[in-house]
Amino acid sequence: MKEKISQILKTLPERPGVYLMRDIDGKIIYVGKAKKLRRRVSSYFRHSHASPRLRKLVELIEDISTIRTETEAEALIVEAKLIRKYSPFFNVDLKMNDRYPYVKITAEDYPRIEITRHKAKDGALYLGPFVDAGNIRNLMRLAERYFPLRVCRKTISPDTKKRPCVEYNLGRSMGACAGRCTQSEYRERVADIILLFEGKSPELVERLRERMNDAAKNLEFEKAARYRDTIRAVWRLSRQRISSALQEDLDNETWHVLNRLQEVLGLKILPWRIDAFDISHTHGHDTYGCCVVFEQGRPSPNLYRRFKIRSLRDGEIDDFASIYETVKRRYAHVLDNSEPTPQLALIDGGQGQLEYALRALRELGFELPLIALAEREELIFLPGNPEPLRLGRDDEALQLLQRLRDEVHRYAITTHRNAREKHMRHSRLDDIPGIGRKKAAELLVKFGSVKKIAALSPDELQKVPGIGSVLAEKIIEALRDVL
Question: Would you place residue 406 in the very low, low, confident or very high pLDDT band (cuts 50, 70, 90)?
């Protein structure tokens, strides 16, 4: 075995990913995927292969690079993208245009759902690709039972005089052709299905819960029970998380920039997924730590996370402690496999913020390449390096880091602003048992402010409809410290 290859094999992780083998000219001659990179790649050099093709491949390998992925399913998708992009000589299987299936939502007034392996430019919405056949079957089964759309291919012209089809009577159709639902109701069902296949279970469940509550209020208990059963079914179905970024084609520019970033930072693994962190507060109030995620050089908003800082008193300012808490809480979730693992993390700040983030990782026992980007001079701080790295403003690697920093800064400010507005909308009246939001709003409209309400006598308060002597006393007691 060549010495260079031997050293590369020692650095490979026992984690999922994709490996790219190059010849002496740097040309990619083979792309493969692995559940455990070190074990799979090492196997090429441990055996004397009977296949002449494999023997020739091993002879030609001069360099190996890897892309870490969160799951084997992601590795399959990345492998397919790279093979179709580079057409390596030794990849005969996927060069023959094997394709993973998509779920297609047709571009019709009353859309249908189909499974296809060809992504056409026909105005339809394509969800996927899905690499697990069992996974897509389970999702389709759930959709057919709880979110049925029409199955016929006819052009729909709703007619209330028409008798609905057998599928409607069996609960497998909304009866759109017979006018048993409006186009708006049908589109709402389509939106549910899109959330289901995109893996956005929390958003889907929230929509269903609102409808369940409305049905219960209207005494439509059978309808509410159906929503309850649907919610349970959605939560039961655990689905592989395939990010939106991985569903897009890999372009030459992104590949070049990620390789450039790997080179300038001296990373062992291509930074396919990057986390970025920032803190936002107003004079120490409503402090939040935020994390955004870029995959394949693009934002993946469904993986963004925010953390209300718990370790500081209200009004206390400590960005270092806030970064420490945010990083530690973020990667505690990664360690328990509830969040995907990045190949690089970026801290908005300088050497101080970087040290506190490193401390959080050390305490977790979690290894991850970590850097900090200081905004004013755009200096890159690396662990163990006394001098920061300075790249040219036109360097594509720096520009990618700047996009990450700007996005996490935007997300942190938005998170903090929303929290502040929610806090400002909250009234002391909301905390008093027996006072709902509607009654609190009525009191504020009538008297102008909480302070003016606190100055009222119980008799004056009792003049407001719905407030008796007991509730009036409660209000006066709860607002006693306002005066």
Answer: very high
Residue 425: which pLDDT band, with cuts at 50, 70 and 90?
low
List the one residue out of 204, 209, 171, 166 whose CA is nearest residue 188. 204
**Cα dist from 12 to 16, 24, 65, 306, 446, whole Å:** 10, 21, 9, 32, 69
Q: Tell me if residue 159 falls in helix, strand or coil.
A: coil
From residue 125, how far is each of 102, 114, 146, 220 by CA, in Å?
Answer: 10, 11, 20, 34
The token pair that represents 166 in the structure block: 């057998």
Q: What is each CA distance from 222 to 170, 185, 228, in whole angstroms?
A: 16, 18, 10
Question: From CA 304, how far away is CA 297, in angstroms rounded?
Answer: 15
Model confidence over 52-111: pLDDT tens digits? 888 889 999 999 988 887 667 677 778 877 887 888 988 864 444 445 678 899 999 899
Provide the pLDDT for residue 254.
82
Exposed e or buried b per residue across 312-348, where buried means at least 16 C-beta atoms within 10 angstroms of its C-beta = eeeeeebbbbbbbbbbbbbbeebeeeebbbbbbbbbb
CATH code of 428-482, in short, is 1.10.150.20
Nearest to 291 by CA among 257, 247, 325: 325
* Same fold flag, 3-96 and 428-482: no
Where are the domains positioned within the chain?
3-96, 102-199, 249-423, 428-482
φ/ψ of residue 466, rounded to 5 = 90, 0
**Do residues 444 and 397 touch, judged by C-beta distance below 8 A?**
no
Structure tokens at 409: 């800064």
- Domain 3-96 -> CATH class: alpha beta
Give the highest mean pLDDT range of 84-93, 249-258, 363-372.
363-372
Calpha distance 325→345 (Å, rounded): 15
Residue 262 to residue 15: CA distance in whole angstroms? 19
Q: How far apart are CA 436 and CA 425, in angstroms?
A: 14
CA-nearest of 272, 207, 265 to 70 is 272
Has this prediction a pTM greater than 0.90? no
**Would you state the pLDDT for residue 240?**
41
Q: Which CATH number fits domain 249-423: 3.30.420.340, 3.40.50.720, 3.40.50.300, 3.30.1330.30?
A: 3.30.420.340
For residue 129, the tally of other CB atoms under 10 A from its CB is 21
